[in-house]
From TrEMBL:
<comment type="similarity">
    <text>Belongs to the MIP/aquaporin (TC 1.A.8) family. PIP (TC 1.A.8.11) subfamily.</text>
</comment>
<feature type="transmembrane region" description="Helical">
    <location>
        <begin position="211"/>
        <end position="231"/>
    </location>
</feature>
<dbReference type="InterPro" id="IPR000425">
    <property type="entry name" value="MIP"/>
</dbReference>
<dbReference type="GO" id="GO:0005886">
    <property type="term" value="C:plasma membrane"/>
</dbReference>
<keyword id="KW-1133">Transmembrane helix</keyword>
<keyword id="KW-0813">Transport</keyword>
<keyword id="KW-0472">Membrane</keyword>
<dbReference type="GO" id="GO:0009414">
    <property type="term" value="P:response to water deprivation"/>
</dbReference>
<keyword id="KW-0812">Transmembrane</keyword>
<dbReference type="InterPro" id="IPR023271">
    <property type="entry name" value="Aquaporin-like"/>
</dbReference>
<dbReference type="Pfam" id="PF00230">
    <property type="entry name" value="MIP"/>
</dbReference>
<dbReference type="InterPro" id="IPR034294">
    <property type="entry name" value="Aquaporin_transptr"/>
</dbReference>
<feature type="transmembrane region" description="Helical">
    <location>
        <begin position="258"/>
        <end position="279"/>
    </location>
</feature>
<feature type="transmembrane region" description="Helical">
    <location>
        <begin position="89"/>
        <end position="114"/>
    </location>
</feature>
<feature type="transmembrane region" description="Helical">
    <location>
        <begin position="134"/>
        <end position="152"/>
    </location>
</feature>
<dbReference type="InterPro" id="IPR022357">
    <property type="entry name" value="MIP_CS"/>
</dbReference>
<protein>
    <submittedName>
        <fullName>Aquaporin PIP1-3s</fullName>
    </submittedName>
</protein>
């Protein structure tokens, strides 16, 4: 593994640094904490680096698999006569949380394991990655989600259209404001967990404690789904909502679709501000 990495560097494939992987220590041999420098706003040189494109491909494939497994699970639930004869809401929540755990674990070392435009947006606001990379990730995540939902529809075209295609909507009995609030708070929980689980200072301070970042991130997704599936079906991931809406492509999927972009982006922004200013107090630290 180390030899392959060295070979890539010698060939110039990784000339530009990759995003710090989720779940890896912030330090190598030196245990002292060093504040990672902020990523540049624009890094056009990334466009000539193979590591940039393989990271985007990893985001595409991870989001593809995420939609494939989770939308299939939702379709299985909706086809059942009762919740007791299927995995139930808890099973759907586990499918979402478990897939995030597995996929973040698998892709962390390549792309950082975002699999969610809201996560990418929050990390961009915290200067963890460049605008170039953030936009590329979001595009690849959305394309992967569309393809994942498309494969599910190919397996069960009739039931897919009849049962809602896994598209996020504000459920009866709740207002658009309820749905927006649920998406903001749910995404805040997720992105706040991402920041906390991958914080370089925490990893340095608690280096004696094994920390597997994908675990709390996946568990946060599971808990948020348990809480908000009855309200919106739980979006907290604009790519997931977009992929299902495009493939389902009926009016009800688009009526409230803005909620599943505005809510997650507001939640991610709040989490980034809270972590940087309140938890880390980075703007107030001396630069000396």
């Amino acid at each position: 593994m180390a030899e392959n990495k060295e070979e890539d560097v010698n060939l110039g494939a990784n000339k530009y640094r990759e995003t710090q992987p989720l779940g890896t220590a912030a330090q190598t041999e030196n245990k002292d904490y060093v504040e990672p420098p902020p990523a540049p706003l624009f890094e056009p040189g990334e466009l000539s680096s193979w590591s940039f494109y393989r990271a985007g491909i990893a985001e595409f494939m991870a989001t593809f698999l995420f939609l494939y497994i989770t939308i299939l699970t939702v379709m299985g639930l909706k086809r059942s006569d009762s919740l007791c004869s299927s995995v139930g809401i808890q099973g759907v929540a586990w499918a979402f949380g478990g897939m995030i755990f597995a996929l973040v674990y698998c892709t962390a070392g390549i792309s950082g394991g975002h699999i969610n435009p809201a996560v990418t947006f929050g990390l961009f606001l915290a200067r963890k990655l460049s605008l170039t990379r953030a936009v590329f990730y979001m595009v690849m995540q959305c394309l992967g989600a569309i393809c994942g939902a498309g494969v599910v529809k190919g397996f069960m075209k009739g039931p897919y259209q009849r049962l809602g295609g896994g598209a996020n909507v504000v459920n009866p009995g709740y207002t658009k404001g309820d749905g927006l609030g649920a998406e903001i708070i749910g995404t805040f929980v997720l992105v706040y967990t991402v920041f906390s689980a991958t914080d370089a200072k925490r990893n340095a301070r608690d280096s004696h404690v094994p920390i597997l970042a994908p675990l709390p991130i996946g568990f946060a997704v599971f808990l948020v789904h348990l809480a908000t599936i009855p309200i919106t079906g739980t979006g907290i991931n604009p790519a997931r909502s977009l992929g299902a809406a495009i493939i389902f492509n009926k009016k009800q999927a688009w009526d409230d679709h803005w909620i599943f972009w505005v809510g997650p982006f507001i939640g991610a922004a709040l989490a980034a501000v809270y972590h940087q200013i309140i938890i880390r107090a980075i703007p107030f630290k001396s630069k000396a």
